[in-house]
Amino acid sequence: MKKRLLIGITIVAVIGISFFSFTRDEKNFEIAKNLDIYHTLFRELNMFYVDEVNPNDLVKTSIDEMLSSLDPYTNYISEDQMEDFRFMTTGEYAGIGALISKQNDNIIIAEPYEGFPAQKFGIKAGDIILEVSGKDTKDMNTEDVSTLLKGPANKPVTIKLQRPGQKKPFTVDVVRQKISIDAVPYYGMIDQNTAYIRLSNFTTNCSEDVKKAFLELKENNPDGLILDLRGNPGGLLVEAVKIVNLFVPKGEEIVSTRGKVKQWDKVYKATAEPLDTTMKIAVLVNSGSASASEIVSGAIQDLDRGIIVGTRTFGKGLVQTTRDLSYNTKLKVTTAKYYIPSGRCIQALDYSHRNEDGSVGHVPDSLISEFTTKKGRKVYDGGGVVPDVKIEGDKLSSLSIELVTRFLIFDFATKYSNENESIPEPEEFSITDDIYRQFADFVEQSGFNYESASQDDLKELLETAKYEKYYELAKEEFDALAAKIEPDLDKDLAAFRPEISDLLESEIVSRFYYQKGSIRASINDDKGIAKTIEALHSETAYAAYFKPGLVVGMN
């Protein structure tokens, strides 16, 4: 009996090994077959297509399309994209230190960084780049111009510019230098009791920047800290772990990664002694807070170390690893998912159906699982981190969106800064009646006109009503509604003045005080910060957020 059983087990094992070998060989054959098809197709296309083709562009397109079928974060990095990739991970590059963008047919300086060559050599936001190193930029895109502006540190680059309001262009020889973008663009005391740190990216050593800022602020004996991660797209996982470690005891699990290659699975714990484990903390987030931002906010929430304030975060819980390819190229490939201390993954369950900004869309309750925090609060997966204190995001009017996207606010700020040598400190500056009147005149003189989303929807409704033969029955009501929602520039500029003034203030202040000034100007009017301060300093409210059994909303 035992002998027959042993023979049976051996036969099953042999069949299993044979089946495994067969499927593996079959898969290898399929790979080889399809690669051969691709090679022969590409060869025939290159030889016989009616027009000249660019082999590099064709291969890049085919690779990009292939990877896009997997997930949004698995990407091919070509040799000419390596500099941008290094900048994303380190925050460093060699260049003039300015953000550029395309406005109509022109490449313009969108923002010179304070303390770097562009600003030191007198280049201003709004300046039009005509030539770089003698090359006309007329038919170039922003990537082409950016490549020309970057280069070896301590070497000059000649830039020909046209300043709005001036007749003659001018030329500047800007000496490039190593540019390191500050991951903490601003920190300070908002009031006597509240410390504030804005973190814009998780680049190399950003945890040291946060540590330095916190230690300096702690000397003021604040009762609470606001860590602002709104709009922070993430970055290096290890930096997120180090930042959480500043506020949680040594040995606490912060995040873990799990993927196909089990040897790469890893648990990240707090390995150093913390700076502070008792101060009240609020992490401010929105739908633009992604990846490493979600590790920090999720871990702080799961460990009941602080409260999360804002809107649901982006929902990116996938880990990427870079793999070297031939000819100095790389593959950034998704290799794992990360899980925060409660065991939940903050990756959106369905990243193919998201909101317009790419953040988590609606997730059915049936797909959501329940988890608990360290103190027993109920939290859920499904995508992103749901805040303890929710703040509805302010939506801009159609008029404001049009004024921004058509560069009218930007252009007015350029005009205003070129006509005024200085303005008051960021906290003191405001859009007066006179400045707003100047802006209204500027908009009207530009020939600006626009249609609202309501008008577009009404047009569709009218078409449907006519098709269904209801239009004649309600013609008077339709006409009255059309009259009410028809944009009136003077009326709308008055109606939406508060939000337009905020946009103008931020843009004008940034021309004189750069990014830090813009942040300083916005703090006093920031509804998110005001709500966070209220939650932090209400003793009963703050403590109530950590009661066992409390449900942190699913949506």
Structure description:
The protein has 555 residues and is an alpha+beta fold. It has three domains: 92-177, Roll (Pdz3 Domain), CATH 2.30.42.10; 186-393, 2-enoyl-CoA Hydratase, Chain A, domain 1, CATH 3.90.226.10; 398-533, no CATH class. It is built from 17 helices and 21 strands. It has helices at 2-48, 55-68, 82-90, 117-120, 142-149, 206-218, 237-245, 292-302, 398-405, 408-419, 433-445, 453-467, 475-485, 489-495, 497-523, 527-537, 539-544, and strands spanning 75-77, 92-95, 98-103, 106-112, 128-132, 135-136, 156-162, 170-175, 177-180, 186-189, 194-198, 224-228, 253-259, 266-269, 280-285, 307-310, 318-324, 330-339, 370-372, 378-380, 389-390. The strands form five sheets. Strands 3, 4, 5, 6, 7 and 8 form a six-stranded antiparallel sheet that branches. Helix 6 runs parallel beside helix 7, helix 7 packs parallel to helix 8 and helix 10 (408-419) crosses helix 15.
Summarize the SSE layout with pairings.
Elements: H1 2-48, H2 55-68, E1 75-77, H3 82-90, E2 92-95, E3 98-103, E4 106-112, H4 117-120, E5 128-132, E6 135-136, H5 142-149, E7 156-162, E8 170-175, E9 177-180, E10 186-189, E11 194-198, H6 206-218, E12 224-228, H7 237-245, E13 253-259, E14 266-269, E15 280-285, H8 292-302, E16 307-310, E17 318-324, E18 330-339, E19 370-372, E20 378-380, E21 389-390, H9 398-405, H10 408-419, H11 433-445, H12 453-467, H13 475-485, H14 489-495, H15 497-523, H16 527-537, H17 539-544
Helix pairs in contact: 6-7, 7-8, 10-15
InterPro entries: ClpP/crotonase-like_dom_sf, PDZ, PDZ_6, PDZ_sf, Peptidase_S41A, Tail-specific_protease
Pfam families: PDZ_6, Peptidase_S41
GO molecular function: endopeptidase activity; serine-type peptidase activity
